[in-house]
Amino acid sequence: SLEQTAEELRAQREENDRLAHEEPITGLPNRLCLYEAFAKKASCENARFSIAIFAPDNLAEILASYGSVLSDAIMRILAQRLNALFPENNACYSMTGTDLVLLLTMPLEEERMREEYLLAQKVVQQPVNVEGIEYYISVSCGVACYPKDGTDREELIMKANLALYQAKRTSEPFVFFSEQISQKLHNRLLIRNAMPKALAHKEFELFFQPQIHSFQDRVTGFEALLRWHSEELGEVSPRDFIGVAEESRMILSIGAWVLMEACATLRKINDRYQTQYYVAVNVSSVQLYSDDFVDRVLAVLTKTGVEPCLLELEVTESVLINRERRAIEKLNTLHQHGVRIALDDFGTGYSSLSILKDLKINTLKIDKMFIQDPNAGVFTKMIVRLGHTLGAEIVAEGVETEEQMRSIRRSGCDRVQGFFKGLPMPLDPLMRYLSARD
Q1: How far apart are CA 396 and CA 227, in angstroms?
Q2: Which letter, b or e, does each residue of 209-222 get, where b requires 16 or more Cβ atoms within 10 Å of its Cβ?
Q3: pTM of the model
Q4: Using one digit for the tens of pLDDT, what is the confidence trace for 285-305?
């Protein structure tokens, strides 16, 4: 009948309208609705509101382990919780199905806003029960405010996403956007874009910091430290570029260059001075977890003619924090070939003793926080005794004063590294430094 046809058309139009305005995974109003609500709020006199983007931290793990049906079900539950917490019309949205967006009018002090968002996080992060199984989801949040952070819609969404990215990187529960965050992330992007050209343009250089025998005051070896003289960016600190290199996996090619350059330079120095100095090279987790790491190291030693006992590979506790069996086995394999293994920044992590149970080491490097704290002498002595019990030599890092030098001697440290005995220096100044000590 005509009435039935009209009813079917009306129902179809309503369904089409729902589909056009609803994000299919979460069931929340979609990006189009968010844009309309933004325009409505921005049109109000003295408008003041915030955009907060919530995103699960471990949803990708669930997706990889259990598939999209479960991850979609979890996102829908999280969306329902947030929507129930802020029931006013047009408060909760979802732009992609893996994010939850709050658009809230909040003429409040920042501290009150923090309380509101912490409450929202606490509610959203409650265990999710799907078919009788509980899943624990952590959530990060980034916030941008209108008009403080801008008045353009896309700009504010971008800034909320920048704050979200910062929250995920720093493991903070939520982050308010700031220009400092924007500048920091912009610098990371510049570094990422400039880095692929750095090796080809020979912008990297190795500096070498001497390690000195604590009691005999003679040079025993050096730590190779990477420096970047960028044509575009000027001098770039390792603190700024190493993390980017690891994230982009460019550390593999850079690390391979460092290892080859360090060993080739060591061979040159030892041939000139007829000595047996060693060189210490830092190794990142990305390098260590690559399948051919052991073969690459041994190949470099063969090519440069450096004896394995003159190469020391430094790893930090953080690299081995999960006690990844394959990583430890690779280091132990190299140790069996005669390569020295050093555990760097010892004492700053949470798994020092459990790592030492499995990892064969030659050297423990005591972090400078212990060396430079006059009240930490007892801890330094404990680490020295532990290392010596394991048959390892002890290196004191960050020694900068005569008093610190006396202290590490009293503690029994074997070697010392720091500004007091030698700055990091390029090859030519290093040669002059060694000649002056002959």
Answers
A1: 22
A2: bbbbebeeeebbbb
A3: 0.77
A4: 899 989 899 999 999 999 999
